[in-house]
């Protein structure tokens, strides 16, 4: 496999569009049970906010050494302001649409002794005006970018995904999609779609064998007119389907601590490696290595170019 192309990646620009969210962590200690109900009492000692969803994809792209522009929707609230601040600190060019009637998507996690005890979600689908804003931001930023990444967390920012794919194709820019749901028709015409194992089963049904998976995957790839389809399979590794056939790589993780955001890291690595012209099999292998590193970290984390470079 080729070495990780750090110098070439530094000159590449990736446009990330999708569901932006804030991951909020409250860390504490648990030493008693509540007298009000049979639940643990967490004495919060530390709080931390991290970029999540599409914003975490952009954060991973920057960590890998490329430039990232982020388009998404946030509310006119504290969480939205926090996303703006964190994006700036991470070196992301933020082109976020503010919607006063749309609260910023927020996932709040409470952890005790490094174990997640509770997650509370705040979310609401955006309206037409905010979606118009997304369309306008993509149109104004598409030129000059090497790859478009569409990060779909089913929060509504990619409601008009077909138009975004068509715009990127018209501009000659490859489109990589992290999908959601069981209907992949809206992603037709993308360059690559990257479902995980569960998402793939939702889209094509449960397969009975590897040969059955191959047939279902290639049929889906053909129906959607994709150049490539990559199925991420957790402990089973990753399987890539292209017109040339099937490629597989085994999982790299030695110890799985937290899978949160691992798909974002994989997508970001695929984007930067493809932006420098790497072929799909090598891009998959680097993405697999990056995913193996990030699942050994707590929460939505990143992998640096240096960490991958050490594996070259």
TrEMBL record:
Residues 13-302 form the Carbohydrate kinase PfkB domain. One of its GO terms (cellular component) is cytosol. Keywords: Kinase, Transferase. PROSITE patterns: PFKB_KINASES_1. The keyword Transferase applies. NCBIfam families: rfaE_dom_I (TIGR02198). PANTHER family: BIFUNCTIONAL PROTEIN HLDE (PTHR46969:SF1). This is D-glycero-beta-D-manno-heptose-7-phosphate kinase. It comes from Achromobacter aloeverae. The lineage of its organism: Bacteria, Pseudomonadati, Pseudomonadota, Betaproteobacteria, Burkholderiales.
């Amino acid at each position: 496999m080729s070495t990780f192309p750090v110098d070439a990646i530094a000159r590449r620009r990736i446009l990330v569009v999708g569901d932006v969210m804030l991951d909020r962590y409250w860390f504490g200690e648990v030493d008693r049970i509540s007298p009000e109900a049979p639940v643990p009492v967490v004495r919060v000692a530390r709080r931390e906010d991290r970029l999540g969803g599409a914003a975490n994809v952009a954060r991973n792209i920057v960590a890998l050494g490329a430039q990232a522009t982020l388009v998404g929707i946030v509310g006119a609230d504290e969480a939205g302001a926090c996303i703006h601040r964190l994006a700036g600190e991470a070196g992301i060019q933020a082109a976020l649409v503010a919607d006063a009637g749309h609260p910023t998507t927020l996932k709040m996690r409470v952890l005790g002794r490094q174990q997640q005890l509770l997650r509370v979600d705040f979310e609401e689908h955006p309206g037409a005006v905010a979606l118009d804003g997304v369309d306008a931001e993509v149109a104004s930023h598409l030129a000059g970018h090497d790859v478009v990444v569409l990060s779909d967390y089913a929060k509504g920012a990619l409601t008009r995904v077909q138009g975004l794919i068509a715009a990127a194709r018209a501009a000659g820019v490859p489109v990589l999609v992290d999908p959601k749901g069981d209907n992949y028709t809206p992603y037709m015409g993308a360059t690559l779609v990257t479902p995980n194992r569960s998402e793939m089963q939702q889209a094509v049904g449960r397969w009975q064998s590897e040969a059955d998976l191959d047939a279902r995957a290639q049929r889906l790839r053909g129906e959607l007119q994709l150049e490539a389809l990559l199925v991420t399979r957790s402990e089973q590794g990753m399987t890539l389907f292209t017109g040339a056939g099937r490629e597989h790589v085994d999982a790299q993780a030695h110890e799985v601590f937290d899978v949160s955001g691992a798909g974002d890291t994989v997508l970001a690595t695929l984007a930067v490696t493809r932006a420098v012209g790497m072929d799909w099999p090598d891009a998959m292998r680097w993405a697999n290595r990056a995913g193996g590193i990030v699942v050994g970290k707590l929460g939505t984390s990143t992998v640096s170019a240096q960490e991958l470079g050490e594996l070259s």
